[in-house]
Amino acid sequence: MGNVLIIGAGGVGNVVVKKCCQVPEVFTSITLASRTLSKCEQIQKDTNNKIKIAQVDADDSKQVIALIQKVKPDIVINTALPYQNLAIMEGCLQTGVHYIDTACYEPYDEAKYSYEKQWAYHDKFKAKGLMAILGLGFDPGMTNIYLAHAFKNHFDQIHTVDILDANAGDHGHPFATNFNPEINIREITQKGKYLENGQWKETDPLSVHKSFDFPGIGPKEVYLLYHEELEPFHRHHPEIKNIRFWMTFSQNYLNHLKVLENVGMTSIKPVKHNGVDIIPIQFLKSLLPDPGSLGVRTKGKTCIGLWIEGVKNNKPKKYHVYNICDHEDCFKDVGSQAISYTTGVPTMVGALMMLQGKWKGVGCFNPEQLDPTPFMEVIGRYGLPWTEVTE
Questions:
Q1: pLDDT at 28
Q2: pLDDT of amino acid 178
Q3: Distance of CA 69 to the CA centre of its chain
Q4: How far apart are CA 49 and CA 46, in angstroms?
């Protein structure tokens, strides 16, 4: 039985709340908090008042601490923006509460993410007897657990890991992002980065691409990006010499993005507008559709997983593990499109693992450091079945 505080009422927070409500025997008390109380009120209404709500500015660790002291949760689940990770971690540390988030910390003023500032909390959490799980969405998160599962059950050595993320959904808008527009655009407009023969290499943004035939979807053009799980993959498994992340984008999406870049709308540097400093990408975010509103009109499927090459019993082996998720099924379940769904469900299951005592530890952990078996045994039951294929 557990009391959870969820901070962040966007698309992912909506999924986490509603999936927690589906397991009342474990999540006995659920509180949702956000800077925008009206978002919490709508989700509370959707759940027939099964949750409590509160208002908090997650940039302010003092407000976070005061809220945690009031709610007294067993776990804080952070589904807010990655900028706010450190303030929420600090709140958990000061109040003695376990912590989970879905994405790596990123500073406001630089389009660059790294786990270093969160890993620096390891000894502090360990000293307090607390557990923090970093990056438990789908990618990162589920992909990290897939890697742990592959190591545990299928390989003696892994040489190459390709993370492939395809969204074949259609929402009907000329241009929209499937998760927070600011985070999404910052992510894909920075340089690509990948590990080859044990060395990091960089590429110009979206300059490397190829066609890949996805199960359940078919051939799609995939583009090489730097994505946050590459960092912990390399840190925890330095013996893996080749790691790449690929994501699909439609040509329509890329054309819109290029125009927005050319006119400066993707910039994170402040500019003067009518005597007021504004950040162009934040203004753009206010013009684009809210990702949480896309579920009702999105059709199609996602396919996300790992394609791995290595050795088992001194023989070469190729292995695929992936999930296929239908946007319309996700909407029927929790009123969400599949991108928020595939992120939020692993987060809920991670909290379930902690509350049931199946994941224990002190300090800060990435998901691939934890036992994948109990997680993989139940994740399908909660909406994300997985398929594995061995060549």
A1: 97
A2: 67
A3: 27
A4: 8
Half-sphere exposure of residue 216: CA atoms within 13 angstroms, side-chain side:
18
Q: How confident is the model at residue 179 (pLDDT cuts 50, 70, 90)?
A: low
- Sign (positive or negative) of CA dihedral 251, 326, 162, 86: positive
Mean pLDDT on 179-192: 80
For 137, which DSSP code? B
Report the phi/psi class of residue 313: left, alpha or beta, with left for phi > 0 and alpha for psi in -120 to 50: left
Among 348, 384, 311, which Cα is nearest to 146's? 384
CB contact set of 184 (below 8 Å; sequence gap of 6+): 177, 178
pLDDT digits (tens, 9 = 90+) for 294-304: 777 789 999 99
Domains of the chain by start residue, with CATH: 2-138+338-390 (3.40.50.720), 142-334 (3.30.360.10)
Tokens of 61: 């660790």
Taking the C-alpha atoms of residue 106 and residue 119, their distance in angstroms, rounded to an integer, is 13
- Nearest-CA neighbor of 73 among 120, 33, 117? 33
Q: Is the pLDDT of residue 94 over 70?
A: yes
Q: How far apart are CA 30 and CA 51, in angstroms?
A: 5
Residue 114: Cβ within 10 Å count: 13
Residue 199, amino acid: Q
H or E element in which residue 219 lies: strand 218-225
pLDDT for residue 144 is more than 90? yes
- For the record, the structure tokens of 23 come out as 């397991």
C-beta of residue 321 within 8 angstroms of C-beta of residue 149:
yes
Which region among 92-101, 171-180, 268-277 has the lowest average model confidence (pLDDT)?
171-180
Q: Dig out the tokens for 382 from the structure.
A: 């909660």
